[in-house]
Write a structure and sequence with these properties.
The chain is built from 39 helices and 55 strands. With 1392 residues, the chain is an alpha+beta fold. The longest helix has 58 residues.
């Protein structure tokens, strides 16, 4: 839905032709020079890109001066082409000459064909030259002017379906090449014959004939054009009284075409280099309303398999024109005339959409109108069409008396207007026009526009490029390009601006227009738009500067200022909405522009690179928005209020060296190729996954329009079809606007249609929804919509900070509405609103919303009967299934009561009712069965069945399974068993046992009577409910003792002997309590209970003897010694046990207290000597281990440091140093990489591979069976050479620190040795242990100072904390055990 407009237009005279001869054109893409050759007079002219004549050369005269033969008198120019490699102009002449022109005086004849030349064409790569000779021969030459192949062009084809035609068929030939140069096509007619010519397709290799086309009925013209992309071959022929352009495949089969609505001779077909536009040239065309002939250039465009005539250029005089598309600028058209003038036209494809969203598409004289806000009609269809008298050149939307109006200028420079009779409703206009036509006997379903009567020619007869309605008036501003006239000079480069004041009434009288002001603007205007802020128009010049034109101002054009100017020309321009300009201030840039390179600007500020299309939504929820698509197929939707945050620096928009420009969003942000590759591997939608302002679109989609007051954006796909999308940010703004206006129906529809989380309706302006739940129920028509909202509720808020839509939703109104208080279900005190607000913010959102909607549903017309489904769901979403089933039961009871009341003559609606589940508003109430079926869609049937059983309602449980998808027979036997119990309590017990609710089952069983107490005790023991049973039996002593006895047994089985003893004690079962204490090793309580039981001395001694053995086996030697001494009077055994427990002081005390000095010599002294020897031996061994571990640790650390240095040196050598890498460096690198920091040798790559397995390679297929071995814990081992060795060594050194208990025992042992006269042994013991402590602390300090490289900062801090605690603990222990008199003394050496 794009139209063709003229950006730049320049015309100049050049000294070629005298008004009645043909002209041929070609261009030089490197220098932008244009070469024009007069066919008859053989004159060549070179023009610069600025339309300045550089030189002119007469070929005939130049060859006469340099050659004896020269050009023959009847030799004329047959073909012109510029050769880039030779930097020369190649001209073929009808006399057979092939010329090279390299300058104004450098003409060289490089070859000549005696048969003459009819036409010639170079291949796209300029490697081959195809020539049609005067003898109907095809000659193929290379660029060295060697003939490669030759064949005949003539072919006799019988005409098929011949029809008379009044169009002359020219004799001659034409050649065209496919874009890849593999094929070329020719068309020719036999000399002197008017029958159809033949189309042939040739292969370049060997000049072999590839295909012959079927001749059309009449009149195949000698004009061909192969689409540059190689898709189709285009030819033209006569069909009846008009022309037809036909598409051919490479195999010469016809593939459609289109009719040319003009008479005359079709002389040229020319494709633009981007294969988008096809130029059709006709000469000697009959003029419309004028005598004589005209030359016509039509530009066609195909979209959605429909051909549109986008523009028609008419040149009076009938002097012949020739066109050529520029090779660099795809939409630049060069036009030359035999009248001696040259025109350069820069075109642009742009959409034409009004501010109300009405799109206009030009198709020749037909203007297709579609109001996109109401209808999404893909072209070539439309909502209504307007038939203009001639093809439309340019058009503009405006407003006249509140109605939409379109003004257009036709190819004959007529001004035509068409107006909608009611706002922007064009469809009723078409029907009204059709009624008027039918009354007059005219059957035509199109609008007939009105031609405006002009008092003088538009823009003084200039070529009209653009028109625009001036804001606030019925005036039009017309911009035209002046023809080269009498003024010449600067006048030729100044645009004509003419203001027309139009007037017409409501009738059918002809509108009139009067020119009120005419000005000339230098610089060239490329874009013009209606500017409401300036009460006129906004103009963009060729340098990107912005100017304003005021309709009532006599100052003419006024510059907008540097901030409004685009840095580069922007062919695509959209105005900044008036609302955005009012909000942002007067310095806001008036327009947003998109350059040809894809750079998007807002005034002078760059916004985004790699853009493909742009549009604005001027009005609607959320304010004005800017929308644009990028080359990575993303649609961006940004509010103008935040547009400044997206503005990028100019330096960020340029691509990095070595990267292609404009490859996508942020094309210049990658610092290196590695980063770019990783970014390219990310999914296209990764960035837009969480950003509501970005969404992915189809590849090649372009923005068409964003109608105001809506959330839908229209895109046109590459195929031409239309697609409407709703950007998430626009949708959220629309939802917020509806919620603020309490339009809950529209808000819900917008939310559900666009798959927005329904929680947004509740979370926005929370707890505002609670007070308007009734409004929501009234406006939402279907109960299923309410169910959808309830089932989507979740505790998290989607609009609060951190929520899904927190950053995209507009903020709610700052002032809350004081019209309604919070509902009573929130437990808010009527006189304490502040407390109520606090409660609302703390209570579960799902529960509050469910209660609010339930209250609103019950209060609505129809109440529970109409809204049974959502009412049940309000219970289900909060987990209150019993409440939901209670509602079902209540409805069922009412239903049964009603059936009983109407039983004699009425019709019931019981379980067998077949009523429709989808009851609409206003119909009968829902039945319990329908509500239950809907509840089963929300809740699992098993869960609902168990809930019904938990309510002890068997009938309700059966009703659940009966209306589910399961077989009720599977549950019938189970339900029958549950109801067989004789009493209600036992039935409930059975149901609870079935449901696994053992606490409730125990409760019912206890209250069923004393006869069921044993079963209750058995249940409590099996299910671990003995504490609950104790509470249930209350003060019944016998029952409590039984429960406590069982409880003690259970605790004893769980090896909780102390708790078991206490339970037996509470049950007054003291013997079993004593036994439990004895097993637990609590000899004090065991002996206490023996005394309470009144045991005899002999019994107590037997118990004491058992306790001594038990305590000894449990390792409580001190307790065993105490029992032996105090209850058995066995001093010898008691002292022995104390020495085994290393309680040296207590052993000495008892021996001397009882006068047993012999025990000191016979028991204590030998034990102390043995303990001292063992301790010294252990300490020496641990000192050796500390030394060995520390030595190995230092060795590993040294190897690691050497490895790091070697790797660093290798990395430095691997850096590029301007020389090639050799094999030696590669081998050295391999050797270093094979070294292990934890091993004492280095291994090469080969040895490391072969050494991985000691057994030879197996020649038998399959896996070798492995012998299963039992796993052992290897966490405490140090694996030499492993990466974990360094850490393991540090852990083992830390574990060798003596514990405080060891130090205390050693201190007492040294004290005892001193007492026994073995001071030397005590000194050895203390000094050995002191050395161990010192060496271990030194090793630990080394580990702390030199941590392994993989240790993090937190681990280092933890190690330091552990070391400090150990040092502090060791220092404290030194005071306890390290006797001062036993410390070593360093004596000075004796003198001498």
């Amino acid at each position: 839905m794009r139209n063709l407009s003229i950006l730049r237009d320049s015309i100049c005279n050049f000294p070629v032709g005298n008004g009645d001869h043909d002209v041929k054109l070609c261009t030089d893409s490197d220098t932008s020079h244009i070469y024009a050759a007069d066919v008859t007079h053989s004159t060549v002219c070179c023009l610069s890109g600025l339309n300045q004549v550089l030189w002119t050369q007469n070929l005939r005269k130049s060859l006469e001066d340099t050659s004896d033969d020269g050009l023959g008198p009847h030799s004329h120019v047959a073909g012109v082409a510029y050769l880039q490699e030779l930097e020369a102009l190649c001209i073929t002449a009808t006399g057979g000459e092939i010329l090279l022109v390299q300058g104004p005086r450098e003409v060289q004849e490089v070859g000549k064909l005696q048969e003459g030349i009819i036409c010639s064409a170079w291949s796209p790569d300029q490697e081959f030259l195809a020539i049609c000779t005067g003898t109907r021969q095809l000659v193929l030459m290379n660029k060295e002017w060697e003939v490669l192949a030759e064949d005949s062009l003539d072919a006799v084809l019988e005409p098929e379906d011949e029809t008379p035609s009044d169009l002359g068929v020219p004799s001659g030939a034409s050649i065209t090449w496919r874009g890849d140069g593999k094929y070329f096509a020719t068309v020719s007619a036999p000399e002197g014959s008017d029958v159809a010519g033949s189309l042939r397709v040739w292969q370049t290799e060997g000049c072999a004939l590839h295909a012959v086309g079927k001749a059309p009925a009449v009149g195949l013209y000698s004009v061909l054009a192969w689409q540059p992309n190689g898709r189709h071959l285009y030819a033209a022929h006569a069909q009846g009284s008009h022309h037809r352009v036909v598409l051919y495949e490479t195999n010469a089969l016809e593939h459609g075409g289109f009719d040319v609505p003009r008479s005359g001779r079709l002389t040229q077909l020319s494709w633009s280099t981007n294969s988008e536009l096809l130029a059709v040239v006709l000469t000697d065309a009959a003029a419309v309303d004028k005598p004589g002939n005209e030359d016509v250039v039509q530009i066609w465009h195909r979209s959605n398999w429909h051909w549109y005539l986008k523009q028609e250029q008419v040149y009076s005089g009938g002097q012949g024109v020739r066109v050529s598309w520029d090779e660099v600028a795809a939409l630049r058209l060069h036009v030359a005339s035999g009248a001696g003038w040259y025109r350069q036209v820069d075109l642009a494809m742009e959409r034409t959409v009004s501010s109300n969203g009405t799109a206009a598409v030009v198709d020749g004289a037909m203007l297709l109108l579609t109001p996109l806000q109401r209808a999404l009609v893909p072209p070539p269809m439309c909502a209504v069409a307007a038939l203009f008298p001639h093809p439309v050149q340019c058009l503009a939307f405006g407003t006249h008396q509140g109605h939409e109006v379109v003004a257009g200028v036709t190819s004959s420079n007529e001004l035509v207007v068409v107006q909608a009779k009611e706002g922007d409703l064009w469809e009723p206009t078409s029907e009204a026009e059709l009624d008027d036509m039918e009354a007059e006997g005219i059957q035509q379903a199109v609008i007939q526009p009105h031609t405006v009567a002009l008092d003088e020619p538009l823009a003084d007869g200039a070529i009209i490029r653009s028109i625009v309605w001036l804001t606030g008036s019925s005036s039009l501003l017309v911009i035209g390009t002046p023809l080269p006239g009498e003024g010449g000079g600067e006048q030729e480069h100044r645009d004509i601006l003419q203001q027309l004041s139009t007037s017409w009434g409501d009738g059918i009288e002809q509108p009139t227009a009067t020119a009120t002001k005419t000005e000339r603007a230098s610089g060239g205007c490329i874009r013009i738009a209606e500017a409401a802020a300036h009460k006129g128009a906004l103009l963009q010049m060729q340098d990107g500067s912005m100017w304003t034109y005021a309709s009532r101002d006599h100052e003419g054009l006024v510059p907008c200022g540097p901030g409004a100017n685009f840095p580069v020309p922007c062919p695509f321009m959209v105005l900044t909405p008036q609302a955005a300009q009012d909000h942002l201030g007067g310095d806001t840039a008036p327009a947003v522009g998109l350059s040809e390179g894809g750079q998007l600007y807002w005034g002078s500020a760059p916004i985004q690179g790699a853009c493909t299309s742009v549009a604005v939504r001027g009005q609607g929820p959320g304010g004005p928005f800017l929308l644009y698509t990028t080359r990575d197929n993303m649609l961006h939707t940004l509010p103008f209020a935040l547009l400044g945050l997206q503005t990028a620096k100019p330096a960020q928009l340029a691509p990095k060296p070595g990267m292609a420009a404009n490859k996508g969003l942020g094309a210049g942000k990658y610092d290196n190729l590695y980063t770019a590759m990783h970014a390219a591997m990310k999914p296209q939608g990764a960035q837009g996954a969480r950003d509501v302002t970005i969404r992915a679109v189809e590849q090649g989609a372009r923005l068409l329009a964003a109608p105001p007051h809506g959330v839908r954006v229209l895109l046109q796909m590459p195929r031409g079809n239309l697609e409407g999308v709703c950007p998430r940010v626009l949708v959220l703004a629309g939802i917020a606007a509806h919620l603020q206006a309490h339009e809950y129906g529209e808000a819900f529809e917008l939310t559900s249609n666009n798959r927005v989380d329904l929680n947004v309706i509740v979370d926005y302006a929370w707890p505002h929804f609670l007070t308007h739940a009734g409004d929501f129920v009234r406006e939402v028509e279907y109960d299923q919509d309410i169910v959808d909202l309830l089932t989507s509720l979740k505790t998290e808020s989607v609009t609060s900070e951190g929520g899904l839509y927190a950053a995209a939703m507009p903020p709610p109104p700052s002032t809350p509405e004081p019209d309604r208080p919070l509902p009573s279900f929130t437990d808010v005190a009527a006189n304490d609103q502040e407390a109520g607000q606090q409660d609302v913010s703390q209570v579960n959102k799902v529960e509050l919303v469910a209660k609010a909607l339930r209250a609103a549903l019950l209060a609505s017309p129809g109440g529970q009967g109409r809204f049974l489904k959502p009412i049940l769901v309000t219970f289900a979403v909060v987990g209150d299934l019993e409440g939901a089933l209670g509602i079902v039961k209540e409805v069922k009871d009412r239903q049964l009561a009603a059936d009983e009341a109407t039983a004699p003559g009425g019709k019931g609606t019981g379980e067998g009712s077949d009523e429709d589940d989808d009851v609409q508003p206003g119909q009968a109430s829902l039945t319990a069965e329908q509500g239950l079926k809907h509840l089963l869609l929300t809740v699992d049937v098993e869960r609902l069945y168990r809930t019904a059983l938990g309510m002890y309602d068997v009938q309700l449980a059966y009703m659940v399974v009966a209306h589910s998808q399961r077989d009720p027979g599977e549950y019938l036997m189970e339900l029958q068993q549950l109801v067989r119990a004789p009493t209600e309590g036992l039935r409930r017990h059975a149901m609870d046992m079935h449901l696994g609710r053992f606490d409730r089952a125990l409760h019912h069983l206890v209250h069923a009577g004393q006869d069921h107490f044993p079963k209750a005790l058995q249940l409590a023991r099996a299910k671990g409910l003995l504490r609950e049973l104790l509470q249930l039996v209350g003060d019944r002593a016998a029952a409590r003792r039984a429960v406590l006895g069982v409880y003690g047994e259970v605790l004893s089985q769980r090896n909780m002997q102390e708790d078991s003893a206490l339970a037996f004690t509470a049950a007054q079962d003291l013997p079993r309590a004593l036994q439990a204490y004895k097993v637990a090793g609590h000899w004090q309580m065991a002996l206490t209970l023996a005394g309470r039981l009144g045991w005899q001395e002999a019994q107590v001694k037997r118990l004491a003897a058992e306790l001594v053995d038990g305590l000894s086996s449990l390792g409580n030697l001190a307790g065993a010694a105490a029992v032996a001494v105090h209850y058995l009077a066995d001093l010898d055994n008691g002292v022995t046990l104390l020495t085994q427990a290393r309680e040296w002081r207590e052993a000495l005390r008892l021996a001397y207290k009882h006068g047993r000095d012999d025990l000191v010599d016979t028991v204590i002294a030998p034990a102390s000597a043995e303990a001292a020897a063992s301790t010294v031996s252990d300490v020496r061994e641990e000192r050796e281990r500390v030394s060995k571990y520390l030595t190995r640790l230092k060795e590993v650390r040294h190897k690691r440091s050497a490895m790091q240095a070697a790797l660093a040196a290798d990395d430095e050598e691997a850096q590029p140093s301007g020389r090639d890498f050799d094999d030696t460096a590669s081998e050295a690198s391999s050797a270093v990489s094979g070294m292990s920091a934890y091993e004492g040798s280095t291994t090469t790559g080969t040895s490391s591979v072969t050494g991985s397995s000691a057994r030879p390679a197996s020649t038998v297929g399959g896996k070798r069976p492995h012998k299963r071995k039992q796993r052992k814990d290897k966490s405490g081992r140090i694996r030499q050479g492993s990466p974990e060795e360094e850490r393991a060594l540090g852990q083992h050194i830390a574990a060798l620190a003596p514990s405080p208990k060891q130090l205390t025992e050693a201190g007492q042992l040294a004290e005892l040795l001193t007492l026994l006269g073995h001071e030397a042994d005590a000194r050895v013991l203390q000094q050995q242990l002191s050395s161990l402590v010192t060496e271990q602390q030194a090793a630990q300090q080394f580990i702390t100072d030199n941590p392994p490289p993989e240790v993090s900062t937190e681990e280092k801090q933890q190690q330091q904390h552990t070391q400090n605690a150990t040092a502090k603990q060791g220092a404290t222990s030194v005071v306890d055990w390290k006797w001062d008199i036993l410390r070593p003394v360093m004596l000075p050496s004796p003198p001498g």
